[in-house]
Amino acid sequence: MRIKFDIRKAYFAAAIVVVALLAVIPRTDLGREYNAALIAAKAGIPNTVTAIYLKNRLYDTMFEVMVFSISISGALYFLKKENKFHLEDTLFTDPATIIIFRGCAMLSFLSACALATVGHLSPGGGFAAGVAFGTSMVIQSLISDRNHLSNYLSMERPERFEKSSWMLILAISLLTFSGIIPSNGIWGSLLSGGWVPLLNILIMIKVGLGTWALSLGFLDHKWIF
Amino acid sequence: MFKTLLNYLGGVPLDVVFLARLLLLSVILIGLWGVLFKKNLIMKIIAMDIMNTGAISLFVLSSWYRSKAPVIAEKGSSIPASDPVPQAVILTAIVVGFSVLALLVVYVMDLSRYFHTLDTDRIQNRWKR
Amino acid sequence: MVNLSVSILVLLPFFCGVILLAVKGRSSRVLLPLWVATSVLAAIMLIKGDSVHAVLGGSYGVELMFDPSSWTFVLMNGLVFIGVTLSVIKERLPLLSCPLMAMLHGTANAVFISYDLFNIFICIDLIGILAFLFIRLGKRPRQIWSAVQYLIVGNVGMILYLVGCLYGYKATGSFSMETLPAIPAIAIYLLVIGLSVKGGVFLAGLWLPEAHGEAESAVSALLSGVIVKCGIAPLLRIAELSPVAARVVPLLALASALYGVTYAMFDKDVKRMLAYHTISQAGFILIVPAAGHLYAISHGLFKSWLFLAAGKLPSRSFEQLKKEGIKVQVWLPLLIGALAISGMPVLGGFGAKSMILGKLSGLPAILMYMAALGTAISFAKIIFLPLAEGGDLAKAVSFSGAFYFLSLVLRDVIAGYFGVAFILKTLFIIGAGWLIYLAITSRRKIELPKSVEGLDHILGLLFVVLLLMIVVFGS
Amino acid sequence: MTGHGLLVIGAVLLMPVMAFFTLREDHILHAIIGRGMLGIAAAIAYALMGAPDVAVTEALMGAFLVTLLYVVVFSSGDEFRVGYVELPMMVSKESEKLEGFAVDLLTEFGRKIKVKPSFVPFESRQALLDAVREGYMDMAIGPFVYPFDESDNYLTLPILETRIFKKNGGEWIDLLSLLYGSENRTFDRSSAEMEKGFYSVLLSEDAHDLNDILFSFMGDEDNLTVPELKKKYFGESK
């Protein structure tokens, strides 16, 4: 199929014109008064972004958790089905790397807990916490002996854990839609703002285990390094 | 001094937000250029990912107001801050963009078992129906 | 009421999906009561006929709209899923397909009831991922490629939709569809082009022949029946609400109908012909936005039935079918489906077509009649396939076949429009179509250029159509 | 244009520069690094624009996880798997380094199409034949000869003519393993009659584009690698 080079240039020229029109649209949102305070007050938590993202627009976040989990299970469906080449047991053996890696794993685990538990007070999201949690698990699985890890944390237990946290998120979002929300609690305290702290932690667990399962899938498939 | 130089460049309202919007739209354009002109399938996917990042950054630009994070210190105080709605919404779009990407890259690797050079023209010529 | 319907339509399928994923369930029999529950709820709500506009979760929350149009789409969603499940109920499905079907059902319902631009973006992305995995469940390498191409084109379309959402929000301060009239024209064009990628409308739907043609028959039945509608339903809403879109979408629909029919008439492959028809039928649905949902329900039914029936054909190319001929039990469902889509009075297609064509006048009416003629011509290819002996009629009656036939006839009886003049007009069109087929098209071998369906071309044409909209309708 | 505005413009300017750098490259690894830098530039820009949540998520998800995904998946992507059974002069493993006529040929071919071969050892011919049939191995080199190893579930591409010695029992041995092979010293050449044959590369059915390119690579006349390698290994004695 000989694509004449000029056709794709024509496509790109059309795109440039469209984007140029987009750029010169007069901005009408100058000076609009942002009622961030109203949203935060209603949700009872200082961080307005988390208030919207986990309380007002929880319907979107529920779909987002579905999207993330289904794409992870779709990728794993392919990775598990593929054949497994010979797999080395551990990837890094010399002690210096192991110590450094263990430090990084602990560091990212701590940051994950911070992002998740205090996510509704100061900036930090459930998903970012999940990724950090997943990274710490990946680093841990890279350095420790593979079968030591697999019998210690065989894939069945995290899988069940992941599915149950997924179901809990769906249940809580149903409760939030039907208005059953615990009291907002004291402003700025750890457990304030209805379901938001619990949801943050559940999303952290769900996304963390999902990332870890994906990376283990890669590890089994000998794609890592 | 700098302000006069910028305004001199043309009648267009040359302030920071307009300049930033131009740059971020050019990120989308560069991404589209990659998707159209790159032959390798993985390069097309990386370019599509760049387009996605460009669209996400436009959202954050539209929420920018005196670059104050929308976190309210005391209960009642309503100091004007950045608009939280596009930020909350775009968090979802980042995760969705990543998930679509993760699936695409894993299954393009499956395709690379049949087409090692991942050259889109070669793939399409092979499967002309 | 809102809470109950959201939980049944969206959350219940998600729960079933997660449970099936955990339990690794493979039999689709379990999901049948779920589809029945959705269709019964939709039928009741349709009879009640009131429309409820709800906001979930306070200010800036997600807005939902339960009006007759969304309930019709939800009913179609339930019926198509019942039909497809009945036809695959005996087979042992691949591991991931039952949970995916449940989640696809829930997400499709979510798109049909949603009244919020950004919520539609996320649901359509989720449907894109589910459709990608469905196409990929087939093992053949070509299906990997068509799935990857589908997701890339869908994702670029969705990026345009996202930018459209942004400009809509900046102009009006909220993502709800009520503010559509105040959105600048260019944002509406971006929304329309993003949705027409997912809905398979005109040039933006060029990925459809590759994706639907290659997928397994049950998967392409779901693709054509439900997943394409998830792109079209929001497009109908936008066309009704925004004056700018009210001028753009019918023109796009006209072009889509004619484009799909011309390619379908001269296609040599059964499944690709049906896929081209999905593009042209998308045009039929969108031409009159107010009555679009009535056409969509009959299209969802007979198109998924045709794909299921086409799955049982011995081979895909028409020449081979002409030589070998097909058994009666394969031919009968195809015949009924073909008659339904060309608009035979009793079957589902007639009520829908008459509703649409009755409301048109002048040039659009003539063009749509030509498109209807083209449909009749291209489906004459299926109707006049020779019959091989040895087929017995008893095997033709299958559970899903009977279900589809019953629902199609019911659809025509309930929402039919039986003007005598119109019955004659439709019969004349079908007859003329068959005559033209027998006289001209069956002999001449016209090969239309297919180079437009390359990946770069599809992506490029998105922007060309966008530019055309801006030039023709003004920014 | 406050100082802070300049800072934001600086961060935002970084993004198109990184994007252009990423897409200017043809080598995928450089593109991935560019993508990582774009993610970090985006995170900085979001933080400066007063969106800390989005900055954290973009930094972790967009910069780190996406780059990890690309590197992990890509590291196995740009290679085709070649199974080999040792055969002196054709494929032989001297002190951890593979060399031989077929090895050099495929490495040269890999360099041309920018996809490098990864050689996987196999003990028995039959295991390698099954691997090629299943598609786990894209190519197979070693003691495979054109007329005898012909089969319909993989393609054979003759690369080097040789002579085959067939015994009446249907058991045959090719020239190279006879001359250099250790275990079949006992094969007496007198009783076997000689036939013409070709050493060949077996290609799996799945590797569509590899087959087309390799056939055209071997086919075109002005390609000097084959005569060069012949001179280097066999010095025109054959």
Number of helices of chain A: 9
Count of DSSP-assigned helices of chain B = 5
What is the count of structural domains of chain A?
1
Q: What is the SS-derived class of chain A?
A: mainly alpha
- Give the percentage of residues in beta strands of chain A: under 5%
Bin the strand percentage of chain B.
Answer: under 5%
Number of strands of chain A: 0
Cα separation of the termini of chain B: 64 Å
What is the terminal-to-terminal distance of chain A? 37 Å
Largest Cβ-defined interface: B-D, 63 and 58 residues
Structure, described:
Chain A is an all-alpha fold and 225 residues long. Chain A has one domain (34-220). Chain A has helices spanning 5-23, 36-43, 48-56, 58-81, 95-117, 126-143, 146-152, 156-177, 196-220. The longest helix of chain A is centred in the last third of the chain and has 25 residues, at 196-220. Chain A is globular. The two termini of chain A are 37 Å apart. The model of chain A has no long low-confidence stretch (mean pLDDT 78). Chain B is an all-alpha fold. Chain B is built from five helices and no strands. Chain C is an all-alpha fold and 475 residues long. Chain C is built from 19 helices and two strands. Chain C has a two-stranded antiparallel sheet. In chain C, helix 9 runs parallel beside helix 11. Chain D is of the alpha/beta class and 238 residues long. Chain D has two domains: 3-76; 79-234, Periplasmic binding protein-like II (D-Maltodextrin-Binding Protein, domain 2). Chain D is 49% helix and 21% strand. Chain D contains eight helices and eight strands, in the order H-H-H-E-E-E-H-E-H-E-E-E-H-E-H-H. Chain D has helices at residues 3-24, 28-48, 52-75, 101-113, 125-134, 175-179, 208-219, 225-234; strands at residues 79-84, 92-94, 97-99, 116-121, 139-141, 154-166, 172-174, 193-204. In chain D, strands 4-1-5-8-6-7 form a six-stranded mixed β-sheet. Chain D has a two-stranded antiparallel sheet with strand order 2-3. In chain D, strand 2 and strand 3 (97-99) form a beta hairpin. The longest helix of chain D has 24 residues, at 52-75. Chains in contact: A-B, A-C, A-D, B-C, B-D. At the B-D interface, helix 1, helix 2, helix 3, helix 4 and helix 5 of B face helix 1, helix 2, helix 3 and helix 7 of D.
